[in-house]
Amino acid sequence: MWLRVDENTDVLTSLSECLHCVRRASDEPGLWKWAIHSLHSALQGAMVCHLSGTAQLGAQSDRCVRKILDWHERDRRGEVERVLVREDEWGPIFQPKRQEDAFPEERLASAPDLFERLHNDVKRVEGGAGALLALLPHHHRSFGKLNTLRNDFVHFTPKGWSIELAGLPRICADVTSVIDIIAADPWPFRHMHERDRGRLATLLGELRMALQTLGNADQPA
Predict the structure, then answer these.
(1) Is the dihedral of CA 60, 189, 144, 29 positive or negative?
(2) What are phi and psi of 107, to 5 degrees?
(3) Are 180 and 201 a contacting pair, CB within 8 Å?
(4) What residues form DSSP beta bridges with 96?
(5) 83 Cβ contact partners less than 8 Å away, ≥ 6 residues apart
(6) Has residue 218 got a pLDDT over 70?
(7) 64, 71 in Cβ contact below 8 A?
(8) First-to-last CA distance in the chain?
(9) Rounded to 10 degrees, what is the CA torsion of 169, 203, 179, 162?
């Protein structure tokens, strides 16, 4: 048995987990940790889909992009050397002759850098991907808060920590709205099966409703 996952299905899985946690958060407040984790993962995956063009560079770190482009240029000039290691039914198998001949390791840009590339053309590292998004100030604020909370959970140090729950539904709703905006663009999920497109729309709609219900419950009577 194998688990098959790609950048599209990862977004769906993360949204499904977030919805599951949000629906139970009233009874189990500790599940907000996993709601934050999974929503951050869903947004990051959606940003990768939106920013990655045909060369698959748009979501890589600036340093990684420079290394990859330099490698391709050296390869074009015939400076990258390979050695034959064996042949199979598909043909010859080569490997880099030296360490510097190996293709550079891919490294994803940080979530704040990806978010900046969504709306800032100057920060883009690859053209031909999703459109520039018109994000509003509350999108920026809520993403910043969600990213900080996620990082604090991931790098949790020995301490007592109290988080005000009242603002979390609004923060998560704003971030969900960013995923909505990405999903409305024809580029990021162009390879997604029609059935999965329907599931994506359903998950986003149900997550919005669940967050609205929690937000309303936090309002004074």
Answers:
(1) negative
(2) -140, 125
(3) no
(4) 82
(5) 94, 95, 96, 97
(6) no
(7) no
(8) 52
(9) 30
In DSSP terms, which residues pair with 46 in a beta bridge? Answer: none
State the residue for tokens 């992009």. 65
Other C-beta atoms closer than 10 Å to the C-beta of 95 total 11
The pair of structure tokens assigned to 38 is 């999974």
Handedness of CA 107, 112, 113, 116 (dihedral sign): positive
Determine the pLDDT at residue 154: 83
Sign of CA dihedral 207, 41, 155, 146: negative
* Token output for 131: 């459109």
Q: What is the pLDDT of residues 108-130, one digit of tens each?
A: 999 999 999 999 999 999 999 99
Summarize the confidence of residues 191-212 as an average pLDDT.
Answer: 96
Residues 6 or more apart in contact with residue 111 via CB below 8 angstroms: 40, 43, 44, 47, 147
Amino acid at 115: F
Tokens of 21: 């946690």
* CA pair distance 67, 50, nearest whole angstrom: 22
Q: What are the tokens at 100?
A: 């510097």
DSSP annotation of 185 reads S
8 A C-beta contact, residue 180 and residue 219: no
